[in-house]
Design a protein that fits this description.
By secondary structure, this protein is of the alpha+beta class. Helix content is 36%, strand content 26%. It is flat.
Length: 318
């Protein structure tokens, strides 16, 4: 018996199969194009957690360096972004201070860059001067040693601020610009943090670049810790709600704020009457914690003073 199918038999089989196969409805799904270039970008939760940690670092560094230098010193977080290390290198000025910072226990190395415009006033303050600005030039050996002590202070404050992710920042040494490109591959994506530093007579940027292995680790830890902090057990929330209901807030019943001429206050005597620029039917405001909430009438409730709520403030406008 010949089991070879001819082309007509094959077409007949396919036709029969298609005729008996029911038409399945298409799934109602929203299809959106995926941008592979955006893969690995910092999420909103991660950016929020990074901002919190680095705002803490900026405040602590501001207070400590202000006390150390005995002059006003301001540090503010400017940006946190993921860029290629080559783009970070292109932002580095020709004359600048670049140092390698080891991150333990990961054993990785990050890059710290400080504008040299900040060096003259900082060094002048540490030597007992007034923090005067100076020309942009390379540092002498003594000046470099002094500035290294400032970088070590920055690393200590970074370690304190980044305790939630378990990282320690250890200052290694200053790097020449020709050596910086060897620390991290130029095509590797890095987490770049930028801070604005202001001293009495100058300002500049402090930049930090973390390699991908460090960035992924700390971002994963930050997201995990941030999510844990936002979720609380139902029993905990219930206890907090009960405790919050026992909080006592200062409240007062008072007339709206008015202006009184100083001449009337100067001639004020017992029994005198001050005329306020308010209609006679104006109701007092009921304020809680200094915030006006509603209009109210002063009444007596048994042996106590009381206030009867009349209407919310937004409804009391004429």
């Amino acid at each position: 018996m010949d089991k070879t199918l001819k082309q007509d038999d094959i077409d007949a089989l396919f036709g029969a199969a298609q005729a008996t196969t029911p038409d399945l409805p298409l799934a109602d799904t929203n299809v959106a194009p995926y941008n592979f270039a955006a893969s690995g970008q910092i999420s909103t939760d991660q950016l929020r957690a990074i901002s919190i940690l680095n705002d803490l670092f900026a405040r602590n560094l501001t207070h400590n360096l202000t006390a150390w230098l005995r002059a006003r010193f301001q540090v503010n977080l400017v940006s946190a972004e993921q860029i290629q290390f080559n783009d970070f290198l292109l932002r580095i000025p020709e004359i600048t201070y670049v140092a390698s910072v080891r991150l333990e226990p990961l054993g990785a190395v990050s890059v710290l860059q400080l504008d040299l415009a900040l060096a003259p006033p900082i060094i002048d303050l540490l030597l007992g001067g007034e923090g005067k600005d100076g020309p942009l030039r390379e540092l002498t050996d003594i000046e470099e040693s002094i500035l290294a002590s400032v970088v070590e202070t920055i690393c200590r404050e970074l370690t304190l601020a980044w305790q939630p992710v378990g990282l320690s920042f250890i200052f290694e040494r200053r790097q020449m610009q020709t050596q910086v490109a060897r620390i991290v591959p130029v095509t590797e994506k890095t987490l770049c943090l930028s801070f604005e530093v202001r001293v009495p007579h100058s300002s500049g940027l402090l930049n930090l670049a973390f390699p991908a292995v460090v960035a992924n680790t700390i971002l994963r830890r930050l997201t995990s810790d941030w999510g844990k902090r936002r979720r609380h057990a139902a029993e905990t929330r219930a206890r907090v709600a009960v405790a919050a209901r026992r909080i006592r807030l200062g409240a007062s019943l008072q007339l709206p704020r008015v202006g009184v001429p100083a001449s009337l206050l100067e001639d004020l005597e017992p029994g005198a009457i001050l005329k306020f620029d308010l209609p006679a039917n104006t109701l007092p405001e009921w304020r809680v914690g200094g915030q006006p909430l509603s209009r109210a009438q002063a009444i007596r409730h048994g042996a106590h003073r009381a206030a009867r709520m009349d209407r919310p403030l937004e409804e009391s406008a004429p």
